Amino acid sequence: MARIAEPSYENLHAAAQLLRKGEVVGMPTETVYGLAGSVFDESALARIFAVKERPTFDPLIVHLGSEVLMSEPLVALAKLELVRLDALNELARGRTGALMRAFWPGPLTVVLPKTSRVPDLATSGLPTVGLRVPRHPVAQALIAAAGVPLAAPSANRFGRISPTTARHVDTELGDRIPLILDGGSCAIGLESTVVTVLEDGHVILLRPGAITRESLEQVTGTPMDVAGKPYAHTLGLSAPGMLESHYAPARRLVLLPTSVSQLDAQTALRLAQDAGPKIGLLLQAGNAGELGRKFGQLTGREVVALSLSREGDVAQAARNLFSSLRSLDESGATLLFAEPCVGQTGLAHAIADRLNRAAAKT
Ligand code: TXA
Ligand code: MG
Q: Which ligand is closest in space to the CA of residue 106?
């Protein structure tokens, strides 16, 4: 059974000891909690896949200590023999360096050509590796104590909702791992933005997140492509970060065509016709009590309603998304509904992306 431990010096030391023995531990980051293991230890990597029940075609993200930011980050990564500088042309190097300087430490993962020092298991046999320098002080302290970069996917069972508290990690994986460091609730609440910089300097957005497309484009000085499925195939990227169904609650989730305040009775009744007596409702904004009552009247069901942000603050909505989905999943409701996220900001796109995938489960 996992021990949830405060990030004291002793506990960080204990976690680092476990990591050095090839064990895996729960690690807080500013995005979501990760399941960390030494990137250079193949048995630890195998353990990560086993614990998560994750298929081995889904590559892991490698988390680095912030000392790589003390000089030119890309050069530091080449010196650590993690990335192949020779595989990138000058434009690619320039754009990559600019991205790292602008957004590290923080919620940006950059996918780059890897060296043979990075085990193929970590990258699912891809010739590239995803790298990020997390901003969370406990993640940084753990990487420093372990003395190696840490491979860490989100600490949930495969395909399920990412954890944003130590308690969530315990619910997902507590019976399989020895220790979870408690770093509080994740400040961002959505997984990192993932981009790849191709050898010729093309930048592609693989997964939307808190670092928005607009801010990335501003830094690279070039419009970026967004990976659709065809693009993913051309690149040989069948990574589940890009699978349609992902981040899903156990209960079926249905996306409403419009906000509850604009929903008509006929549509509501049709959507809920097969539902049991109790249903869940995830609101993007507004008063959960009021809107929940309205949805109850429209559908004739008992409604458990949660609002992501009463004031409609999109950062707060992102922070609450996964924990709210999790609560609704555990509420006894047999069918869940969510309002669509229609905002135009980058974070709103990231929320919409996660909701679409959560609802795509069949
Ligand atoms: O915020 C985050 O990124 C969190 C925390 C723990 O850092 N981690 C996370 O890991 O979300 P995970 O395993 O749930 O997502 C990893 C995703 C893959 O599914 C894939 O989409 C992308 O990152 N990825 C990683 N390496 C890649 C590579 N070499 N090529 C393409 N995509 C890659
Ligand atoms: Mg994940």
A: 1
Q: Structural domain tally of the chain?
A: 2
Q: Is residue 242 part of a domain?
A: no
Q: Which residue's alpha carbon is at the smallest distance from atom 17 of ligand 1? A: 241
Range of the domain at 267: 253-359
Ligand 2 is an ion; residues with CB less than 5 A from it: 154
Q: Which of 62, 130, 72 is nearest to 98 (CA)?
A: 72
Whether the per-residue pLDDT at 236 is higher than 80: the answer is no
Residues 209 and 258 in one domain: no
**Residues 106 and 135 placed together within one structural domain of the fold:** yes
The whole-number pLDDT of residue 360 equals: 81
Q: For 1-35, how does the pLDDT look when each residue is reduced to its tens digit (9 = 90+)?
A: 689 999 999 999 999 999 999 999 999 999 999 99
Report the separation in Å between the CA atom of 30 and the middle of ligand 1, taken as the mean of its atom positions.
14
Please give the pLDDT value at position 230.
45
Q: What is the DSSP track for 270-316?
A: HHTTT--SEEEEEESSS-HHHHHHHHHHHHTSEEEEEES-TT--HHH
| Separation CA 346–CA 296 (nearest Å) | 32
Predicted pLDDT of residue 284: 98
Q: What is the CATH number of the domain that holds 282?
A: 3.40.50.11030
Same domain, 192 and 265: no
**How many other CB atoms are there within 10 angstroms of residue 178's CB atom?**
16
198 assigned to some structural domain? yes
Helix (H, G, I), strand (E, B) or coil at 76: helix
**Any domain includes 240:** no
Q: Which ligand lies nearest the alpha carbon of 207?
A: 1
Same domain for 210 and 287? Answer: no
Closest to 134 (Cα-Cα) out of 69, 59, 79: 69
| Contact status, residue 248 vs residue 159, Cβ threshold 8 Å | yes
Residue 280 sits in the same domain as residue 309:
yes
Ligand 1 site residues (CB inside 6 A) read: 29, 31-32, 34, 58-61, 107, 109, 111, 123, 126, 128-130, 152-154, 191-192, 194, 206-207, 237, 239-242
262 and 231 together in one domain:
no
pLDDT of residue 6: 98
- pLDDT the model gives residue 246: 67
Closest ligand relative to 134 C-alpha: 1
